[in-house]
Amino acid sequence: MSEPRTRAQRIQEVIPGVWRWCVRDDRIDAESDAYAVVDAGGATLIDPLPLAEKALRRLEPIAAICLTAKCHQRSAWRYRKQFGVKVYAPAGVRPMEEEADVWYRAGDWLPGGLHAIHTPEPEEVHYGFLLTREPGVFFCPDLLMHGRDKVEFVPPAFHADPAATQASVRRLLDLRFSVLCFNHGTPITDNPQAALRELLQRTGT
Q1: In the structure, what pLDDT confidence band is assigned to residue 7 with cuts at 50, 70 and 90?
Q2: What is the pLDDT of residues 71-100, one digit of tens each?
Q3: How far is CA 148 from the centre of its chain?
Q4: Residue 4 · residue 74 · CB < 8 Å
Q5: pTM score, whole prediction
Q6: Distance of alpha carbon 184 from alpha carbon 117, whole angstroms
Q7: What is the DSSP letter of 140?
Q8: Cβ distance 23 to 3 under 8 Å?
C-alpha cells in the first residue's frame, strides 16, 4: 500500500515521551495518525506516516519502526532505508511490500517498551501496542476510530468478523492504561475506559 500523498508538517506531544502526527489520508479520505515513543534509546516510530524533515529531525535518533498490521506499512520502508533501522511486524501477516527485519508475536516486547497485544480484526493478524510505563498508553489499531467527540467502531465493511472486533474491544478493558491513541482520530487522555464502555453500551455489544 502506497504512502499518503500528504505530509504532516508538525508533531504534537500527547504526553511526555509520546508524539503524534496526522494527515488527511487521500487513500481513505479520512484522518490517519502515527506516533513515536521516545526513550533513552531514541524514537520508536509506530505505523509512521509521511512527516516533514524539520519535524522528523525533532524525533532523532530514530531507533526502530513497529507496525501493527499489514495495512499500516505507510512510510515504514522509506524510513527504514533513510535511518538504517529495523522494521518490526507481526508474524503471520499477509505478504507486504517489503520483508520485515523482525517478526513479533502476542506478548513480545518491542523497542520503546511496547508490549504486543493481539487484537484480531479487521484481520486476524492485527495488533495493538501497550506502553506500560506510567501513565500507560495503548496504541489502538483499526478496531476503533475517534471522531465527532466520540469513539466508534471502524465501519463493519472493513471487518471480516465484526463480532471478533467487538470482543477485541471488550478485552481492552482488562488492560491498564490512561491514554488511548488511535490510528484514526485524536487521542483520549482522560478516562479512556469510560469511552470504551460508553461505546459498548451504546452499540449493545
Answers
A1: very high
A2: 899 999 999 999 999 999 999 999 999 999
A3: 20
A4: yes
A5: 0.94
A6: 18
A7: E
A8: no
* Cell 471488550 -> residue: 170
pLDDT confidence of residue 203: 82
Please return the burial class of 195, using the count of CB atoms within 10 Å of its CB with bins 0-12, 13-18 and 19+.
middle
**Residue 28 CA, distance from chain mean position:** 16
Contact between 70 and 58 under an 8 Å Cβ cutoff? The reply is no
Helix (H, G, I), strand (E, B) or coil at 151: strand
What whole-number distance in Å separates Cα of residue 11 and Cα of residue 38? Answer: 13
Beta strands in the chain (DSSP E): 12-15, 18-25, 30-39, 42-46, 62-66, 86-90, 102-104, 109-110, 114-118, 127-131, 137-140, 144-147, 150-153, 179-182
Q: Does the pLDDT value for residue 24 go beyond 90?
A: no
Instruction: Report the share of the chain in percent with pLDDT over 90.
Output: 77
Give, as one character, the DSSP assignment of residue 173. T
Three cell numbers written together for 49: 506516516
